[in-house]
């Protein structure tokens, strides 16, 4: 008998389609931590990230028979995770959210990578988590996931211009946080 951790990805998926509980557990063990990282980028806190992850994997197991064995299985899971996070943080609710920060022409944009290159991955993630929900979701979709504004607009039921403006505001807020961190460090 082959152990579940020795199964190929295709064997594991086929076993999960047959509802093999041990294989479902193995699939979660293989992909859960990476997908939790995705959830953490969208979530307000760890508990929300864990809820998103749980909901997403329930969907993965419900829809696994729809995977066509074309393209990346991890990418397929990631798409479900992102869509689950988007449902939790519906941007339409936050389209008009007030962040307390408005962009002004005289605000300086930080373009020197040296200013933020010293930040750790964890510090950057914490800064992203501090963004208002709508800003955070669009920042993640555009900067991290690589979607274009037209795609984001279609996914979220907003205008492409709203996506662009939320991204600009998200970047400005992140830059302000970095600048404030620089002042503290000096």
Strand content: under 5%
Radius of gyration: 19 Å
Tally of strands: 0
How helix-rich are the residues, as a percent range?
Answer: 55-70%
User: Which segments are poorly predicted (pLDDT under 50) over 5 or more consecutive residues?
Assistant: 94-113
Q: Would you tell me the overall average pLDDT?
A: 85
Morphology: elongated
Give the distance, in angstroms, between the N- and C-terminal Cα atoms. Answer: 61 Å
Q: Report on the biggest sheet.
A: none
* Number of helical segments with 4 or more residues: 10
What class, by secondary structure content?
Answer: mainly alpha
Compressed to H and E, one letter per element, the order equals HHHHHHHHHH
Can you walk through the features of this model?
This protein is mainly α and 186 residues long. The chain has ten helices and no strands. Helix 8 crosses helix 10.
């Amino acid at each position: 008998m082959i152990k579940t951790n020795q199964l190929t990805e295709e064997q594991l998926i086929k076993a999960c389609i047959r509802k093999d509980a041990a294989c479902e557990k193995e699939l979660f063990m293989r992909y859960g931590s990476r997908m939790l990282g995705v959830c953490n980028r969208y979530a307000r806190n760890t508990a929300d990230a864990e809820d998103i992850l749980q909901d997403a994997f329930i969907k993965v197991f419900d829809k696994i028979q729809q995977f066509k064995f074309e393209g990346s299985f991890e990418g397929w899971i990631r798409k479900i995770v992102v869509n689950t996070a988007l449902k939790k943080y519906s941007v339409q609710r936050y389209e008009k959210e007030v962040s307390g920060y408005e962009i002004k022409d005289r605000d300086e944009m930080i373009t020197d990578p040296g200013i933020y290159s010293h930040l750790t991955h964890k510090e950057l993630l914490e800064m992203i988590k501090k963004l208002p929900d709508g800003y955070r979701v669009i920042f993640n979709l555009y900067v991290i996931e690589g979607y274009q504004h037209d795609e984001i607009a279609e996914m979220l039921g907003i205008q492409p211009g709203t996506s662009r403006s939320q991204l600009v505001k998200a970047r400005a807020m992140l830059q302000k946080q970095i600048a404030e961190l620089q002042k503290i460090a000096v």
